[in-house]
Design brief:
The structure holds two protein chains of two kinds.
Chain A: H1 5-22, H2 31-48, H3 55-67, H4 69-75, H5 81-86, H6 96-109, H7 114-136, H8 146-179
Helix pairs in contact in A: 1-2, 1-8, 2-3, 2-8, 3-4
Chain B: H1 13-17, H2 20-29, E1 33-37, H3 43-55, H4 57-62, E2 89-90, E3 93-97, E4 133-134, E5 140-141, E6 146-148, H5 163-171, E7 177-179, H6 191-213, H7 223-251, H8 264-271, H9 304-309, H10 316-330
Antiparallel strand pairs in B: 1-3, 2-3, 4-5, 6-7
Helix pairs in contact in B: 8-10
The chains are: A mainly alpha, B mainly alpha.
Keywords (chain A): Nucleus, Transcription, Transcription regulation
Subcellular location (chain A): Nucleus
Protein name (chain A): Transcription factor IBH1-like 1
């Protein structure tokens, strides 16, 4: 599923709303301040499009809320404000060294045929990649199973695509304006 | 040994309507070919993979490399049974034989069910396949492997064909969705393996969608490679967002977005036909002159604002420029 024009429009509207909040304090003379403002409002806009149905959107809003609580509260002035900001899934903390050591011991006990070894290595590789994906997707650590993870990445990728499309067209329009 | 096919997807109404003895009869009399409709661009790949599956019947299924099966595993299993692969591709549809008949004198002594299934066109949001495990005496044991809800589910068919399930399935299609899994030949049929298999089917289906979404993933066959590509794609999209926001911050010190005062039809034109963002390609609108990033705000940025703040008096050349921009987008 590709980003549709209605998604683009909604994103743009929300993004503009977010930027409006920054506009009064326009003495963000430094480029980095402005960039931060743009990026944060774009992220919240993208996440609010999902209206809290997906895990990544909630996690993203929480992340930006930790950076700029005021912005998030203003942008999400609706009902979901509290639920979004406070909801969190428990994260399982593993002491990695201990886990690794016990895994090694287990592996020693098991019989090792050639095919099993290859399969085990392949499984390990896939596990590593899924862990990488969890790090890439916001809120990935809270997704308990792989099915959910893949669903969320699907949605996240589509939303990222809308975000990038809209931002790119804005930038190009601005560039065209300046060129003139 | 019990046999069956794995169908992660929905049933047809005709299947749903048949009762158990009718199905047996149908199976004994003729073999039915079911049509599996897929998106058309998948069909050449699927044909290849069908043949691949057909040749590797049991070993493939039973090996631990089943992890890497990217397809719905029920595909090619029956091909080397009592009949040759009798499938035909029709306009992007792939048909597969759903069953075969086993001689009662067979040592396994299993009767396979003949199921008629026709698939809805979109693979998305369909979650029904039936669990049927059959013993020699043809008793019918249904295993409800999973109940699952999906927010954007799109069920078209009645859920089941036996009285046990009808009431539940029909009324709660939206809320409660049973995943029906059929065990294949040579595979364990206890609940746990079935559940695991159903889970794996789901995951591989979702991975297929991801492969369609991420450009350049179609060629990669292993799960690890596809995941790698996905990770790279997500990270590149994130980096693009950073870069674009920086660029916009440089271009636009007043944080004003150009579109907000455009008229409605320009707005529409602006957003039609947005191409998919491809990581490797440079900016889509290649015919626009690139704005050098090192040009700082001392440039005549005041030019932008009067043009953008009033639709009544935009300078003509700016409008023509943006029209050419829209035209290039609409391409």
């Amino acid at each position: 599923m590709q980003p549709t024009s209605s998604m683009n429009k909604e994103f743009l509207k929300k993004w503009q709303m977010g930027l409006q909040i920054f506009r009064p304090s326009i003495d963000n003379t430094s480029v980095s301040e402005r960039k931060r403002a743009i990026k944060l409002s774009a992220d919240v806009a993208m996440a609010s499009l999902r209206k809290g149905t997906t895990c990544w959107s909630r996690a993203l809003i929480q992340k930006t809320a930790s950076e700029d609580n005021f912005l998030v509260r203003q942008m999400l002035s609706g009902i979901k404000e509290e639920t979004l900001i406070n909801k969190k899934l428990p994260k399982v903390m593993c002491h990695r060294k201990i886990v690794r050591r016990s895994k090694k011991i287990l592996m020693r006990r098991k019989s090792r045929s050639a095919m099993e070894e290859v399969a085990a290595k392949a499984k390990k590789l896939v596990k590593r990649k899924t862990q990488g994906l969890r790090n890439a997707v916001p809120g990935g650590e809270f997704m308990s199973n792989n099915v959910l993870l893949i669903q969320e990445t699907l949605d996240y990728i589509v939303s990222l695509q809308t975000q990038v499309n809209v931002m790119r067209s804005i930038v190009d329009a601005a560039a065209a304006g300046i060129e003139r | 040994m019990l046999e069956g096919l794995v169908y992660p997807e929905s049933l047809s109404l005709s299947y749903a309507d048949m009762s158990v003895p009718e199905r047996l009869k149908g199976m004994q009399q003729h073999q039915q070919i079911e049509v599996l409709s897929q998106s058309s661009n998948d069909s050449p790949e699927l044909l290849q993979i069908l043949q691949f599956h057909g040749s590797n019947n049991d070993e493939l299924l039973q090996s631990t490399f089943s992890h890497f099966q990217m397809l719905e595993s029920g595909f090619g299993t029956k091909y080397n049974m009592d009949f040759g692969p009798s499938h035909e591709a029709m306009d992007g549809c792939i048909s597969r034989t759903s069953s075969c008949q086993i001689d009662p004198a067979d040592t396994m002594g299993v009767m396979l069910k003949n199921s008629v299934e026709s698939r809805a066109i979109s693979l998305k949001n369909k979650r029904k396949s039936e669990v049927k495990t059959r013993e020699e005496e043809k008793t019918d044991k249904k295993i409800k492997v999973e109940a699952e809800t999906e927010s954007n589910i799109n069920n078209k068919e009645a859920s089941s064909d036996t009285s046990k399930e009808t009431s539940k399935g029909d009324s709660e299609i939206q809320k409660l969705d049973y995943i029906h899994v059929r065990a294949r030949r040579g595979q364990a049929t206890d609940r746990h393996s079935l559940a695991e298999r159903a889970r794996r089917e789901k995951i591989s289906k979702k991975m297929k969608y991801l492969q369609d979404l991420v450009p350049g993933c179609n060629t990669i066959t292993g799960k690890a490679g596809v995941l790698d590509e996905i990770i790279n794609y997500v990270q590149s999209l994130k980096r693009q967002v950073e870069f674009l926001s920086m660029k916009l911050a440089v271009l636009n010190p007043e944080l004003e977005l150009a579109v907000e005062d455009l008229s409605v039809n320009q707005f529409q034109a602006y957003f039609t036909n947005f191409p998919v963002v491809i990581a490797s390609k440079p900016s889509v609108m290649v015919d626009l002159p690139l704005f050098p990033l090192d040009q700082q705000g001392s440039l005549d940025l005041s030019v932008i604002n009067p043009n953008q703040t009033s639709i009544d008096a935009p300078s003509a050349s700016w409008e023509t420029q943006s029209h050419s921009l829209f035209a290039s987008v609409l391409r």
